[in-house]
């Protein structure tokens, strides 16, 4: 059906008419849930296409399977994942022959949907054409397993053996590798190997892969389409072919409104506190949680709160016994609850459930403490929050709002109030080993009516981003040098004339090269040294309408060597300003054009040839007298660099220091401000675990730059050099080293990034890190990576 799709925005925040998927089916592997059918006759066992949209919850699970239990005779074929460190596999155990094709990309993002297509055709003479895997419209060419089937070999898909969606084989155990997550718009095309364009397209405004209304397909003998429209018959084939499947382990409640075109909030399995050693067990589409030990563990939501929102939590266990505790509420964005406070909550509020708001900006926790009395197993708690009014309400079932007040008349007194903090995510904390509850952010259909004016927690209700397509303001471009002259064209959905271009040779120990349109082409600075500006006519020779032009200098254009160019547009809208001024030797203010307070200031004396060189202020540093350099040093203080004065929406300050204000010397300053859905400047604390911190950005990052504030080089990572997770490619802005790929670093996710490496450059235990990040796409329209 065709509706207005809130996720696919046009110009000025308007929505394009687009295909909308209204529902999905939730598969819970604990229920051994799957769909099955045994065809009466075989179709084409050599050529077929499988397509589905999915939202992943567990690390493993099968999307499609057919054949017998591997304990019988290793005779089955399936598509799916078999572990957190494995990519998407298409494989067959078929004595005596087998094949296995697997992506290098790891799918570990629980916060958004993505699209998978497998085109299978053993009639192809070229082996690599017999199995093609596409994710979000692009063919996966980086593969960790490449054993292809033999030419013209037949397999169990479209055969007269049981065919399954959500399991990989039939057998004595009833199946295996049950799918854990959501599926929407699931297709099997019998007899044709199709491309993703039959099922989706790239949205012209956002540049993101989106579903289309599928029409004109020939399904063959055993093909099907599952739209999951009938909650009493999830396997109803809506293709018109009548190839209905039977459901097992599914209930009517597993039809949810969470879909690829309206992505609902769940609990975020990569954002648990503590991040390492967390015993929370998630099920039912990451909506139900139970603790595993007598330790208090917390989990945060996938969505940030916006405006007026309502959600419900139902208790699934008694909380009246000693040692049990559920703490539910909202926390400030970026909050990491220290272990010392876990005991505080469970000891103080043992045996009761309460909403709470925590702000650690002053190092003190301030929970709201309404007296709720005794809560019972089966009670449903309703929570309403008005971000703009700074108020929070709770009720039991459909009773009165506890502590007084009414969210529909926000001037009244609510349960809890808050001020002067940035509200972040919902949080759920449980203590006892049997503490259990289930949440509904609107995708299940609330048990009780939400207060008027309060919305479900879903992407459709997120604010429209100011910048719908970040590629019109920031891009990373890869190119290969030719040793002559060449123009480098941007490859994003949009193009722009860049004002700041930062180039690095990936293959050699050449300097980083910074150019900007204010100083002019050919004028070069290097972040890995303190050298004065130089003019080199053979470096960047022009800022073009869709990229930049180069001469033949080795630093930017050595024949056959690989390069990366990061590019920014100077404008208040994407929060970037470039300022040129002359030092006076006396403290003063300098105007900028951002219109908001900058969160990152990078200043360089264009004529200096010695330390301190680059002086950097970041909003997450402890104060106005703090700074960093582009080197391995720790954060430090000087009242003279920034005159111990924080920047404002119109000016920044410099003191009487040669580093930022030497008399008669010319300076260039790059200023950046955070723009919701486009850029973010913040901090996190490492834990020295491969299950490292999750950092919320509100977008899928295109580039992330990280600095250990105690020591270490800076590190820069992007989606062009690391096009899939886990990210390993790194360059160091503070060193001229060639690109390294010897360490696991992080995952880029639809709403932020997750640290996966244990090196102190990113994740020292208890170490503080500042970061700067720019978006590939806002979370509202993001697919999982």
Provide a descriptive summary of the structure in words.
The chain is globular. It has five domains: 2-256, Jelly Rolls; 267-457, Sandwich (Jelly Rolls); 470-568, no CATH class; 576-672, Immunoglobulin-like, CATH 2.60.40; 679-781, no CATH class. The protein is 3% helix and 38% strand. It has four helices and 56 strands. The longest helix is centred in the middle third of the chain and has 10 residues, at 339-348.
Topology (elements, then pairings):
Blueprint: E1 2-9, E2 15-19, E3 24-27, E4 34-37, E5 47-56, E6 60-67, E7 75-82, E8 89-94, E9 97-103, E10 114-121, E11 131-135, E12 138-139, E13 143-147, E14 163-165, E15 181-190, E16 200-202, E17 209-211, E18 224-226, E19 246-248, E20 255-256, E21 267-273, E22 281-283, E23 288-290, E24 297-304, E25 308-315, E26 326-332, H1 339-348, E27 353-358, E28 380-386, E29 391-396, E30 416-417, E31 423-430, E32 436-440, E33 474-480, E34 486-489, E35 500-505, E36 513-516, E37 523-524, E38 534-535, E39 540-544, E40 547-550, H2 554-557, E41 562-568, E42 576-582, E43 588-591, E44 600-605, E45 614-618, E46 626-627, E47 636-637, E48 651-654, H3 658-661, E49 666-672, E50 679-685, E51 694-696, E52 699-708, E53 715-718, E54 746-749, E55 752-755, H4 760-763, E56 768-778
Parallel strand pairs: 26-27
Antiparallel strand pairs: 1-2, 3-15, 3-20, 4-14, 4-19, 5-10, 5-15, 6-7, 6-14, 7-8, 8-9, 9-13, 10-11, 11-12, 15-18, 16-17, 21-24, 22-23, 23-32, 24-31, 25-28, 25-32, 26-31, 28-29, 29-30, 33-41, 34-40, 35-36, 35-41, 37-38, 39-40, 42-49, 43-48, 44-45, 44-49, 46-47, 50-56, 51-55, 52-53, 52-56, ...
